[in-house]
Amino acid sequence: RTVYLNGDYIPEEEAQVSIFDRGFVMGDAVYEVTCVLDGKLTDFEGHMARLERSLRELQITCDISRDEWLAIHRKLLELNGLTLGGVYLQVSRGNAGDRDFHFPPAGTPPTVVLYTQEHPDMLDGPKVTKGVRVISVPDLRWHRRDIKTVQLLWASIAKMTAEQAGKDDAWFVEDGFVTEGSSNNCYIVKGDTIITRPLSNDILHGITRASLLKILAERQMKVEERPFTIEDAQGADEAFYTSASSFVMPIVEVDGVTLGDGMPGPVAQRLREIYIDEARKHAI
Ligand code: PMP
């Protein structure tokens, strides 16, 4: 695989970063993942807008323009012949020169890394056909979940906890309400209404969520942005989650309780089709 590191396109084995890089020492880095369909980037502008916001919120300086980001993404797709998968992008505050809690001096260049990942079963894997089973775990992450940092340890532990319980993924719960999934935004369906938690610093502002809500509004479908509980989800007709790498993913079980007939629900399946169609149409 050819990867991008600080201006160079090089084989992954040659891509090396300092042990003093703050991304490594302090988790001081942000990231983005953009989905690739038919060799094209989906929701690209949204991902770049969120990247710029994450960088701004953490005062990480990175002077790569949107046009340059697009050129780097496209070049990596071309060099790696990627048609179905994603491009992973990470920007850290760079090399502090030594371990120090304080930020390095202004002008210290950030470390910029991009690479491609193939996801051959993204469109039709077993999760899509069977639906996913989730368990709940307490949300023990920090309180700026709106910033997409690489501090993914709790998400990683949550996914391992789910796997060890024989399930597929975890939902985070705080103050009695579901915040979001370990790497996705969550929804429940009651009758003809789709319910999802409103945006705040408690959750990541999903780019797929934003695109889906736009699609729902265009079709005059009923949406309620309000927090919901595990019990609400267990009593719902359907549930699903969204993320760039999973689009719309049906959920069939929540903490051991089967939803409906235990198969992916019609609303989730229909929204998945519409979402993928729209993503394809607008991919660049
Ligand atoms: N929430 C969390 C915690 C995530 O990690 C992700 C995926 N990175 C999402 C939501 C979904 O965001 P997006 O639709 O932009 O992929």
Structural commentary:
With 284 residues, this protein is an alpha+beta fold. The chain has two domains: 2-118, Aminotransferase class 4, branched-chain amino acid transferase, N-terminal domain (D-amino Acid Aminotransferase, Chain A, domain 1), CATH 3.30.470.10; 126-282, D-amino Acid Aminotransferase, Chain A, domain 2 (Alpha-Beta Barrel). 30% of the residues lie in helices and 29% in strands. The chain has eight helices and 15 strands. The protein has helices at residues 22-26, 44-57, 66-80, 126-130, 153-164, 207-218, 230-234, 266-282, and strands at residues 2-5, 8-11, 29-37, 40-41, 85-92, 111-118, 132-138, 169-174, 177-181, 185-190, 193-196, 222-225, 238-243, 247-254, 257-258. The strands form two sheets. Strands 7, 8, 9, 10, 11, 12, 13, 14 and 15 form a nine-stranded mixed beta sheet that branches. Strands 2-1-6-5-3-4 form a six-stranded antiparallel beta sheet. α6 links the parallel β11 (193-196) and β12. The longest helix is centred in the C-terminal third of the chain and has 17 residues, at 266-282. The relative contact order is 0.15. 4'-deoxy-4'-aminopyridoxal-5'-phosphate binds next to α6 and β13. Keywords: Amino-acid biosynthesis, Aminotransferase, Branched-chain amino acid biosynthesis, Coiled coil, Pyridoxal phosphate, Transferase. Acts on leucine, isoleucine and valine. This is Probable branched-chain-amino-acid aminotransferase. Its cofactor is pyridoxal 5'-phosphate. GO terms for molecular function: L-isoleucine-2-oxoglutarate transaminase activity; L-leucine-2-oxoglutarate transaminase activity; L-valine-2-oxoglutarate transaminase activity.
